Automatic annotation (TrEMBL):
UniProt GO MF annotations: aldehyde dehydrogenase (NAD+) activity
InterPro entries: Epimerase_deHydtase, NAD(P)-bd_dom_sf, NAD(P)-dependent_oxidoreduct
Pfam families, per database record: Epimerase
Top-level taxon of the source organism: Bacteria
Name the UniProt record assigns to this protein: NAD-dependent epimerase/dehydratase domain-containing protein
């Protein structure tokens, strides 16, 4: 196939392009930086400005793809800055995603695949969210705004009359090139004693290894259109996974802080991450994508 990947040098973008090229697909990668990394694996590079509708249309028209894959994210180098970076990330999905989808529809692209969030899904505490779950639009601050924008984007993709829309709701990425690895940013924070469990740490997180996420994305090229939760089989409360992660990376046990202390120091969003998130079910991905995620690597550390 001819495939256009936006966000082609990101945490999932680059390994995805590498696998697509290994499978002999013709890939154009859109990126702001890192062009040499794309060229060395045989991809064509596009420097289109995702916020410029005509630039995006020109890029997709030049690539003439069968599939457009939106893997755009705007994440900081330091995970401590995640909330500060969210307005830029939200704008990227609201404006950039809209430009990509409009160009794909106008130019007759057959399939459109978009990265979404498998960790902002709205399910009762203690239950796993399936693909019918909406995103947490009532979450506080920047999380709620991100969820509203991404939820609307999901609806535009799946409701399109001219493209086959696929939404991949990934869990928190771990593994090579991510924050969650033995030499990653979260591990470094943990070894410096900078990670804490807020309150009861009862929010349930769903992770996914980056290579498993890539495999699911490749499978979605030919699968039934729709929404898929791309998460592993080990959704765990913060109070469980964070100490195990610390042991896995040889870090001290994370501290405990109260909700009141955390709200004063880090804001409502940080508290929400530790007390309100729910895990996700991967049943549809297993059934329709042949998804076979590995066990969470630090679960039993």
């Amino acid at each position: 196939m001819k495939i256009f990947v936006a966000g082609a040098t990101g945490a999932i973008g680059l390994p995805l392009v590498r696998v697509l090229r290994a499978l002999n697909h013709e890939v154009t990668g859109m990126t702001r930086a890192g062009a040499d990394r794309l060229r060395e694996i045989g991809a064509t590079v596009s420097f289109a400005d995702v916020f410029d509708p005509q630039s995006v249309r020109n890029a997709i028209e030049a690539a003439s793809p069968d599939v457009v894959i939106d893997q755009l994210t705007w994440l900081p180098a330091n995970p401590a800055d995640i909330i500060k970076s969210m307005p830029n990330d939200t704008r990227l999905h609201r404006e950039g995603g809209s430009n990509l989808l409009a160009a794909a529809e106008a130019l007759g692209v057959k399939r459109y695949i978009v990265q979404s969030r498998g960790f902002y899904l709205n399910a009762p505490l203690g239950e796993l969210a399936d693909e019918t779950a909406g995103l947490r639009c009532d979450a506080p601050g920047e999380i709620g705004e991100s969820a509203r924008v991404i939820g609307a984007y999901e609806d535009s993709v799946t409701g399109s009359a001219s493209v086959e829309g696929v939404v991949l709701r990934y869990g928190f990425f771990y593994g090579p090139g991510t924050w969650y690895r033995p030499d990653g940013a979260i591990a470094e924070q943990a070894r410096r004693g900078e990670t804490s469990i807020i309150g009861d740490g009862n929010a349930v997180w769903s992770f996914v290894h980056i290579d498993d996420a890539v495999a699911a994305t490749v499978a979605s090229l030919m699968a039934e259109p729709g929404v898929y939760n791309v998460v592993d089989d080990d959704p765990l409360p913060v109070a469980n996974w964070m100490p195990a992660f610390a042991r896995w990376v040889d870090a001290p046990e994370p501290a405990r802080v109260s909700v009141v202390e955390a709200r004063k120091a880090a804001g409502d969003e940080a508290v929400y991450y530790h007390t309100c998130l729910t895990g996700a079910s991967n049943r549809a991905a297993k059934t329709k994508l042949g998804f076979a995620p590995r066990p969470l690597l630090w679960k039993d550390a």
